[in-house]
Amino acid sequence: MPDATVNLYDLPRPALDARLASWGFSPQYRERVWTGLYRDGVTAPGDVTGLRPDLQAVIQERAHLGVLATHHESFSSDGLTHKLLLRLHDGQTIETVLMRFKGRATVCVSTQAGCAMGCVFCATGQMGLSRHLTPGEIVGQVLHVTRVLRAQGESLRNIVLMGMGEPLHNYEHTMAAVDILVDPKGLALAPRFITLSTVGVVPGILRLADEARPVQLAVSLHGATDAERAALVPAGRRWPLNELMDACRYYVAKRKRRIFFEWTLISGRNDTAEHAHTLGQLLHGMDAHVNVIPLNPTVGYDGGPSVPDAVRAFQDVLTSHGVPSTVRQRRGIDIDAGCGQLKAAVERKPRRSLPVAS
Ligand code: SAH
Ligand code: SF4
């Protein structure tokens, strides 16, 4: 592995330009490299076409592309969800999920290997944090699925930063990746189709608002009182609901955008009419939309998903508060497509299949 060389996917356009300029590339050749990486989708620096031979030699010698290898993959029974476990250069593995709705493919991307936030029902939280991903490792996931889609004549529309990890705990690298993804001369993904989901890292939300980052924001609530929320989401102790909701209101006012809230529905735990009323009151007067997600059970947590009647009743109460909501089924439950679940399952297998001493 050419560790001494730079992974070009790590560099947003201005940084790549500066690097290439220092290597003697004129603006025209710098643009050629960018479009080679993100329009043509080359998989090695030497494959960028249209460069002078001396420049091609330089780039081959000093750079590499962090193309991610498939460690494991599976498809849901309906074929619409393609779950990938991708391997990083240091052997870490991360999850990327490609979901196909009619004509609009969506990729769910990881921002960290593991997660430090410890939400009790989340398979990634149960693993702890290994490390942040670099911008190139985030971009590399998108490029990976773009290649899969391209081979089938399809293209990518939506990106959800909802895979493993907490994107606002890895703010700089996540935003560098977003800058690369939306560059009009590269992948040119539409910012309004990029959704960042956070557990509620207040300083990160304020920064997103101040920096006018063009992503859609989704905030994971799961509890509408501090005590109930903190029991599921330990980060709720660090950033209590009054601070979190102030940050959300600031975001809405500054960005003039609606916020999405996520609520994982756990049977008997946070899915009663009373819970829904408390949530409705919390969101009163705010431009908010709630996505309710019946729990995808994980090995490390004994809760179960809410039954369909409870889900409907929960939504009815929200409607009575004027709060719109949508049920999001976690797709591909049959292939461990919940956050962190494929990695947990794949890495459990060796232990499961240990020979029994006779
Ligand atoms: N760290 C970010 C983004 C990744 S998790 C966040 O927490 O928002 C994306 C969403 O999936 C979150 O709303 C999270 O609470 C939810 N989630 C995680 N594990 C789940 C599970 N087992 N069942 C249902 N939703 C889950
Ligand atoms: Fe981390 Fe999000 Fe999982 Fe919580 S739900 S542990 S923040 S990945």
From TrEMBL:
> What does the protein in this record do?
Specifically methylates position 2 of adenine 2503 in 23S rRNA and position 2 of adenine 37 in tRNAs.
What family does the Swiss-Prot or TrEMBL record give for this protein?
Belongs to the radical SAM superfamily. RlmN family.
Where [4Fe-4S] cluster is bound, by residue? 115, 119, 122
Write one Pfam family the protein is assigned to.
Radical_SAM
> Which coarse location class applies to the principal site listed for this UniProt protein?
cytoplasm
Q: Name one GO biological process term.
A: rRNA base methylation
Name the domain of life this protein comes from.
Bacteria
Cofactors that this protein relies on: [4Fe-4S] cluster
Q: What class of enzyme is it?
A: transferase
Which keywords label this protein? 4Fe-4S, Cytoplasm, Disulfide bond, Iron, Iron-sulfur, Metal-binding, Methyltransferase, rRNA processing, S-adenosyl-L-methionine, Transferase, tRNA processing
Claim: Ligase is one of the keywords in the record: no
Catalytic reaction annotation: adenosine(2503) in 23S rRNA + 2 reduced [2Fe-2S]-[ferredoxin] + 2 S-adenosyl-L-methionine = 2-methyladenosine(2503) in 23S rRNA + 5'-deoxyadenosine + L-methionine + 2 oxidized [2Fe-2S]-[ferredoxin] + S-adenosyl-L-homocysteine; adenosine(37) in tRNA + 2 reduced [2Fe-2S]-[ferredoxin] + 2 S-adenosyl-L-methionine = 2-methyladenosine(37) in tRNA + 5'-deoxyadenosine + L-methionine + 2 oxidized [2Fe-2S]-[ferredoxin] + S-adenosyl-L-homocysteine
State the remark under miscellaneous: Reaction proceeds by a ping-pong mechanism involving intermediate methylation of a conserved cysteine residue.
Name the record gives this protein: Probable dual-specificity RNA methyltransferase RlmN
Which residues does the UniProt record annotate as the domain Radical SAM core? Answer: 101-334
**Free-text comment on the cofactor:** Binds 1 [4Fe-4S] cluster. The cluster is coordinated with 3 cysteines and an exchangeable S-adenosyl-L-methionine.
Q: Which organism is this protein's natural source?
A: Corallococcus aberystwythensis
Chain sites annotated for binding S-adenosyl-L-methionine: 165-166, 197, 220-222, 296
